[in-house]
Amino acid sequence: MMEGRKARTGAGASSEAAEAEMRVEQAHLADIIARIQAHIERLGAASGNLRAAAERVSGDFWEDISLDESTSDDLLESYADIAQQAALVEELRARLGASEAEVAALVKMMQRPYFARIDFVPEGEEPLTLYIGLRAFYDETRGEELIVDWRAPIAALYYEHAVGPAAYRAPGGAVRGRLTKKRQFIIRGGKLKAMYDIDDVAAGDELLGEILSRPAEPHLRAVAETIQREQSAVIRDETHGVLIVEGAAGSGKTSVALMHIAYLLHRFRGTLLSRDVLILSPNALFQEYIGTVLPELGETNVRRTTLAERLRSVLDGASIETLFDKLEFLLGGDADDARRVFRRESDAWIGSPAFVRLLDQFIEALTPEMIAFVDLGDEDAVWFPAERIREAARRLASRDRHPEAWLVALKARLRGALAKRAEAMLRASWVDQALDGVDPVLARKAYEAVLKEEGPLQELDRRYELRLRRTIVRRRAKALAERIAVWAFIDWTETYRRLFTEADGRTKALWERFRAETGLPSAAVRRFVAGVVERLRSTPLVYEDALALAYLRTRLVRDGEDASVRHVVIDEAQDYGPLELAWLLRLFPKARLMLLGDRAQALTPRPTVFEEAVVQSLMEHATPSRGPFGIRRLPASYRSTKEIQALAYRVLGEPMPEGSFLRSGPEPRLIVVPSYDRLAREIVGEIRRFKDAGFGMIAVLCKTERECETAEAYLAGRIGYQRVYPETREMKGKVLLMPAAMAKGIEFDAVIVFDVSGACYHEAYDRHLLYTLIMRAKHAVTLCSVGEPTPLIPREHVQVLTSSPD
Question: What is the pTM of this model?
Answer without folding.
Answer: 0.86
